[in-house]
Amino acid sequence: MEYAYISTIGQDSHRFEIDAAPSGNVIRLGATDIPHDRRLIANSDGDVVLHAITNAVSGYTGVNILGSRADKICLEQGIRDSRIYLAEALKYMNGATIVHCSMTIECLAPKLMQYIDQMKSNIGDLLEIPQSCVGITATTGEGLTSFGRGEGIQVFVILTIQSSL
Q1: Which of 33, 110, 132, 137 is spaced 20 to 30 Å from 154 by Cα?
Q2: Options 3.10.180.10, 3.30.1330.50, 3.20.20.70, 3.40.50.300; which CATH number does 3-164 get?
Q3: Domain boundaries, the chain
């Protein structure tokens, strides 16, 4: 059988609330809870990593999940878990499979190094690929953008998808 390998890109970003959150606050990135002193502004759990992956899947399928579909799931059904949005996007893959996921996360804080392995494991499980096929880098971008200055988090994702010809 012959295959085509297709690359698709997804991006998402969320701004932090201005005021510090209560002690013990966490944000969710890559389905991993990470302590942080401010919350992300979002209708959902604000998992900007899973949102970027969802957008990359939508780039392949042509079916946009974030926006009206996710709003219906979140606002009408009360489901705030971004794993559900990603699962919805994956329903439209029509037999194609994701074989690799690479991403860059831009933020000043929180520092992510100690959470990357857990994020890779969670993402691998959600995409049904080995953890070794998930690449995550993090950068402050030298403070050149609002994300690198601590105002929010931005994520870019590239998926490699294998599709039958």
Answers
A1: 132
A2: 3.30.1330.50
A3: 3-164
